[in-house]
Amino acid sequence: MLAKSTRFAPGVCAVFILQLACLSFAGAAAQLEQAENLLEKGQYEQAEAIYQQIVSQYPGTDDAFAAQKQLTFLYIAWDRYPQAEAAYNQLLASFLGHKDIAQAVHDIAYRYRSVNKHEKGNELDQYVVATWPDSDYALLGQMDIAKYYVDQGDETNAEDACAKLLTNYSGHALTARAIHDVAQHYRYTKKYEKANELYQFVVKTWPKAEHALWAQADLIKSYLAQGDDTAAEAAAETLLTKFNDNPLIARAIWDTGQHYRDLKKYEKANQLYKHVVENWPKAEHAVWAQADLIKSYLALGDDSSAEAAVKKLIADFSWSEHIARAIHDTAWEYRRLGNYDKANELDQYVIDRWPKDVQAMWAKMDMAKTDIALGNYAAADKTVDILIADFRDQPELPETIFLIVEQYYTRAFRNQNEGLDIDAKVNLRKALSLCDRIVTQFPQSLTAPRACRFAADSCRRLGEYDKAVEYCRTAIDRWPDYKYADRTKVMMDRCLEELQKQRSNPK
C-alpha cells in the first residue's frame, strides 16, 4: 500500500494552492499527470484536490472520467472507504454510458482486491458480469471471482464460478488465459487434481493459444508437486514435441528446467537446458539456459563440466545483449560457493570486455565484497575509488556502494559476536567512511538518507554519540519524508541520553 500523507503545514498549503492555480491553466492532461505523480508519492490531499478540480472544470469529458476513476483509486489507497464508495457511485452516475466504464469498474474491483477487500471486489466484478456480459472485463471479472473462491478453499462456489467461466465465455479470445489463471490458483492452493484438469482442458481446447503452452509447462510442475515423476516426464515430452513451433517454446523449456533445478533434479534440468541451446541457439533464453547449466553442474560438484560450459557460454554467446550479465551471474555463483579465484576471473573478464556496462560496475562491487570478506581492505578501498571514478554517471552507483557498506557492517557484527572488538571497530569505521561518501557525493540519490542513518548507527556503535546525533539531525533535516525518519529520531534521542550520561559521569 502507498504511504499515508500528512496534513499540510500552512506555508506548504499556500504554495500548493498557488501550484494548483497554475495547473488550472496547463490543461487536464498535465493536471492528471501531476496528480498521478502525487498519488504515487502518497501525497493524497494534493492529488485529491487536483482530481476534484478536473471533475469540476471539465464535466462529462474523458478527462473528468479519468479523474473520477483515479479519485476512487486514491480513496482506496488512503483507507477512506466511505469516500471511495461515494466516488465510485459518482463515477456510475456521471459516466454509465462511457465506452471504458466496464474496464473502470473492473479496475476498481482489482484495487479493492489489492488491499484484501475481496468481498467488495467480488461485488463490483459481479456487477460488471451482469451489466456488460459481452465485454472482456466481464470475463476477467468472472475469472477473478473464481480465483478468489479457489484461494478461500470454497470448493462449491469455486466450482460454480469456474463452470460459469467455461459456459459463458467458451468462444472468447481470453478464455484460455482465464482458465489457465484459475488453474494456477488451484495449484498454488495444492488442489493439484483440479489444476491438472483445467491445464489439460486448455491444452486440448485451445492447442494453438499461448496459454496452452504455459498450461502444458505448468502441468509438469503440478505433477512434480504431487511427486509423480513419471507423469511429469510424459508431460515434459509433450511440451518438447507438441509445442516445438511455438515462438515462446525456448522460454517455456528453460523455465521448466529452472523448476527441475529448484527441486534439485539436476540431470533432467540439464537435459532441458541443453535442448534449448541445441535447438534455439539464437534465442534469448538459450543464453540463460547455458548459464544455468553451469550452475547445475556446480551443484552436482562437476567442476570440469561446469568449466566446459563456461567456455561455451563465452565463445558461443558473445552476440547476446545479455552476455555480460550472464557471465557476471556465473561469477556470482562461483563466489557464493567460495571459489573466489574463478569468480574474480569471470568478473574481470566482464570489466575488461564491457568496461562501461552496468554489469562491470556490479562485478567490481562483488570483487570489493570478496576482498572485504578475505580481509584485503586496501584492495577493497582501491576498488571503491575506481568504482566511483568510472561509474559516477550510473544512477545505481550509490546503491552499489551501499552494498559494500553492508558487507563491512555485517562483518562488524560477526567480529563482535566472536569477541573481536578491535576488528569490529575497523569495519564500522570503513562502513562509516563509505556512508559519508554517499551522503556528501550523492546527496540527491535515494540511497543517501539510508546511508546517513547507517552512518549515525555506526557512530553510535563506536560510542561516538555526538557524531551520531549530527548524522541523525542531517538525515531528519534533509530527508524528512524518509520512511525511517521516525526511527532516526528515536536513535537521536537515545544518543542524546547517552551523551547526557557521559557528561554527568565523566571518567
What attributes characterize this protein structure?
507 residues, 26 helices, mainly alpha, disordered N terminus, Serine Threonine Protein Phosphatase 5, Tetratricopeptide repeat
Written account of the structure:
The chain is mainly α. Among the domains are: 52 residues, no CATH class; 113 residues, Tetratricopeptide repeat domain (Serine Threonine Protein Phosphatase 5, Tetratricopeptide repeat, Alpha Horseshoe), CATH 1.25.40. It is 78% helix and 0% strand. It contains 26 helices and no strands. The longest helix has 21 residues. The radius of gyration is 29 Å and the shape is globular. The two termini are 50 Å apart. The relative contact order is 0.03. The N terminus is likely disordered.
Number of helices: 26
Helicity level: over 70%
The Cα radius of gyration reads 29 Å
Low-confidence stretches: 1-18, 20-25
Distance between the first and last residues' Cα: 50 Å
The overall strand count is 0
Enter the CATH topology name of the domain at 395-507: Serine Threonine Protein Phosphatase 5, Tetratricopeptide repeat
CATH architecture of the domain at 395-507: Alpha Horseshoe
The level 1 CATH classification of the domain at 395-507 is: Mainly Alpha
Q: What share of residues are in beta strands?
A: under 5%
Outline: globular
Query: Which oligomerization state do the chains in this entry correspond to?
Result: single chain
CATH level 4 superfamily of the domain at 395-507: Tetratricopeptide repeat domain
Order of helices and strands: HHHHHHHHHHHHHHHHHHHHHHHHHH
Overall pLDDT metric: 92
Main beta sheet: none
